[in-house]
Amino acid sequence: MSILNYFTKKERPVLLNTDTDNSIARQLVNEELNEVYNETPKKRKRGNYTVLSDEMRAKVAKFANENGTPKTLKYFGDLNLKESTVRYLKKTYNSVRKRKLNMDVEELPRKKRGQPLMLGESLDKKVQDLVTEIRDAGGIINSRIIRAIAKGVILAEDRNNLQVK
Q: Both 105 and 133 in a single domain?
């Protein structure tokens, strides 16, 4: 017999307060959140990634450019770098050096990540504010919660813009 039989599932009280100025939007968001809270979560495991500062990326790339990828992997063995990462850093280092007319590169900044906002500035700002409010109240935030909040905000603003898959 499992010990879990002696416990009951706690209800999630973290929903948005509907007593404020935009109660219709908050009510629609709450409905979407209720659906998400009642679903069972899916678990995924990510790998461990090494995050390097811009200066360290430049050092690794410079060493790889001068000594080759295999020696770089041995020299920086404590960083747990992958061969493809070192080759990419070396390629980026050489392209930056070309642009700077063969001057030394002190920093190797990362590329901008992500896509442009799908909802636009105003709707995205509203979603961010609601997420912050839920997080401050002690709620759990994950991708399903974000989608539910976004759907509620879009339903409150303009139902014609919502395309459900």
A: no
